[in-house]
Amino acid sequence: MNNVALAGMTLGELEQFLKGMNEQKFRAAQLFAWISRGARSFGEMRDLGLSLRKKLDESSALRSSVVAKIETDRDGAVKLGLLLGGGAAVEAVLLPANGRYTACLSTQAGCPVGCVFCKTGSLGFLRNLSAAEIVEQFLELDALCAGNVSNIVVMGMGEPLLNLEALRKALEIITSPEGRGLSKRRITISTSGIIAGIAELAEKGPDAELALSITTAREDLRGRLIKGAGPVSLRDLKNALVRWQQKHRRRITLETVLLGGINTGGEDAEALVRFARGLRTVVNIIPWNPVEGLSFEGNALVPPAQSETAFFRRQLESAGLNVTCRFRRGRGISGACGQLGALPDTGK
Ligand code: SF4
């Protein structure tokens, strides 16, 4: 029965797997290299030998998900809808910029955190993705640009730090020098602020860049905007970031989704400046990408006016913070930040 997705196995696991078939160790390295190069069938792995290819065909599958939908934006961004086992579905996005390609990967089907401004959050939570399902998103996006993905942002559907084990394994596979060998320094993990997860990242890695979706540093407002995370003490959150930075010595990106009339005022800017004090940060301002039907305490959400964004940015910069404003790639296909969740039909 084809019940093992080999795309989710590390080289060491493949060695064990093939050992169980009485195959030699070097075969695992060949198989791992083929999978990392995006092979879609055992038939094309000519150097494996016919009998091994046959055994693999009978005992396992290369991948566990299927691409059900591909949408391309005028700006070049491509969004994939993938069907997973058990009726789940996720989206992943390829973002081209300046001749480079970034893969935006999902880690959960739905999301338990439920940020009010995020389409994924409005779907509820179905389940964690397996390492194979995360690796497969990468392989599909990499194939779209002839193997030229250079960066990964784990900013798609789901909270990565609530599925850290699978994510760690997936990134180990993608960055393995015997396989695709993507640079670890070109991976960014974005969290809504899972304190235990940040602590675990500090201790055990992966050694990737870290982005925190702070949105607002006014604790009460933040608790109402990022509901499912439960009450999060910003002091504890900051302490976790300080410890992470002591270990990893890298700048932290503070992502701030600006919601018109909600978190764009002087008080919000001051709170963010206080939060950032003592950390090495860059603030990434993201004007909210519209998602129909989302509201906050009875009022429909709206993007910030240009003047609100400009004011907020000025306040931060005049306090000495480094600030960037994220471009809105993928917006035409609902593939921009916070818009993922227009899933392919799962037949349910
Ligand atoms: S912004 Fe991230 S953490 Fe929040 S609901 Fe969306 S996917 Fe989940």
Compose a concise summary of this entry.
With 348 residues, this protein is an alpha/beta fold.
Name the CATH superfamily classification of the largest domain: Aldolase class I
**Proportion in helices:** 25-40%
Radius of gyration computed on alpha carbons: 21 Å
The order of strands across the largest sheet is 1-2-3-4-7-8-9-10-11-14
Low-pLDDT segments, ≥5 res: none
In words, what does this structure look like?
There is one protein chain. The two termini are 25 Å apart. The protein has two domains: 6-59, DNA polymerase, domain 1 (Orthogonal Bundle); 66-333, Aldolase class I (TIM Barrel, Alpha-Beta Barrel), CATH 3.20.20.70. The chain is built from eleven helices and 14 strands. A hairpin with a 2-residue loop joins strand 12 (295-296) and strand 13. The longest helix is centred in the C-terminal third of the chain and has 15 residues, at 234-248. The protein is an alpha/beta fold. The radius of gyration is 21 Å and the shape is elongated. Iron/sulfur cluster binds at residues 111, 113-115, 118, 120-121, 157-159, 192, 213, 338.
Topology (SSEs and partners):
Blueprint: H1 11-19, H2 25-36, H3 50-59, E1 66-72, E2 78-83, E3 89-97, E4 100-104, E5 108-110, H4 119-122, E6 125-128, H5 131-144, E7 149-154, H6 164-175, E8 187-191, H7 195-204, E9 209-213, H8 219-225, H9 234-248, E10 252-258, H10 266-276, E11 281-287, E12 295-296, E13 299-300, H11 306-318, E14 323-325
Parallel strand pairs: 4-7, 7-8, 8-9, 9-10, 10-11, 11-14
Antiparallel strand pairs: 1-2, 2-3, 3-4, 5-6, 12-13
The structure holds iron/sulfur cluster (SF4).
